[in-house]
Write a structure and sequence with these properties.
The structure is a homodimer. In chain A, about 20% of the residues lie in helices and about 40% in strands. Chain A has about 210 residues and is α+β, with helices and mostly antiparallel strands. Chain A has one domain: Electron Transport, Fmn-binding Protein, Chain A (Pnp Oxidase, Chain A), CATH 2.30.110. In chain A, a hairpin with a 7-residue loop joins strand 5 (about 75-90) and strand 6 (about 95-110). The radius of gyration of chain A is 21 Å and the shape is globular. The interface between A and B is large, with 97 and 97 residues.
């Protein structure tokens, strides 16, 4: 039976939310999540690629991996997605901060066993991680599909936390004569690097 | 007593390492970690700012936060730092991948109680998160220092995992006529945004 995680906000509750559309928006903007689970009271936090598909989080990994073995055995997990949006320069150390958006999803993941459900899930993953790419790829063989586990976690018990906007200094600090503001941060793609074994005459696709 | 986390590499061992200087290099490049801990068998994975200071990870948070309360009670934790370096476009779904560097640090954190040690730790945090900023800031009051907990976790039991380089396709896929390569990704700063209450005549500092 799934236990309920404690998703009450202990502090800074004005930064918290349990709004499903907002959770989806944050999840759809990321490609990397951090998956937490505990074995013998030792937590592990593992970075993984993911996609949201309807009201599910999809995570795939090698059948042989520690994460897949443990999660598919029915362990409670927590999957967190964080966007690091900016450094907040206040006038004091104490009020200096970061802007971010994060979602924590709690629950028990299920391994997708049904071949058709798995194929659809893998497609959703590729569509999220590399939009436009799927039609071009060589389809997965049965052997490849069998070597990969696809886990699904319902987005039911979750918790959002965000900070946005300018620094919030004490009134008494406002005349401290230093710059204050926000340096926005985002993940930027660089110039694509061709594979060394790229076939001659193949140009970069538009979706890059 | 600290139990030992299982840091053996279950698979893709060629991507794994336990090299301390490499761990430091990866840790020094990031500003956000994901802290995992379990309460009543429910894992929580919380994004936090951090700094490496010598052979310690420093994490600070409100005295009232769930994370600080639990970690300072001597719970095992796992702190993971991940850099998401690129999308790897292979010719097959199965070999499509991501480039990344990650470090997982395992252990029990200690709350820094000594005022001088705490002041030095907070300085190390500010120097890492906002280099060049510390001298300009209004110093923390005792009240502010007391409202903040500073946790320290030794970088002793840790595990590095990285993927770099081009796609690794099956030989039989190399003539599949699609583009293959890597799209590098990095965190980019945008144009700084002045605080609405910025004093007139203050220009942006060089360290931005």
């Amino acid at each position: 039976m799934t236990k309920k995680a404690d998703t009450k906000f202990k502090r800074a509750a004005e930064r918290g939310s349990h709004d499903f559309p907002l959770a989806c928006k944050i999840l759809d903007t990321g490609k990397i999540c951090h998956v937490g689970f505990s074995v013998d009271e030792q937590p592990y936090v593992v970075p993984m690629a993911y996609a949201r598909f309807e009201n599910q989080l999809l995570i795939h990994g090698s059948v042989a991996s520690r994460l897949v073995k443990n999660l598919s055995s029915g362990l409670q997990c927590c999957v967190t997605v964080t966007h690091y949006d900016g450094l907040v320069y206040a006038r004091s150390t104490f009020h200096s901060s970061m802007n971010y958006r994060s979602v924590m999803v709690f629950g028990v993941a299920r391994t997708i066993e049904d071949t058709e459900e798995k194929r659809v899930g893998v497609q959703a993953l590729v569509d999220h991680l590399m939009p436009g790419r799927r039609e071009e790829l060589r389809q997965s063989s049965s052997q490849e599909l069998n070597a990969t586990s696809l886990l699904t976690l319902p987005i039911e018990t979750f918790s959002i936390k965000c900070r946005t906007g300018p620094p919030e200094d004490l009134k008494s600090d406002l005349d401290h004569p230093v710059w204050a503001g926000v340096v926005p941060l985002s993940v930027c793609p660089g110039e694509p690097v061709d594979a060394p074994d790229l076939l001659p005459g193949i140009s970069r696709p538009d979706y890059l």
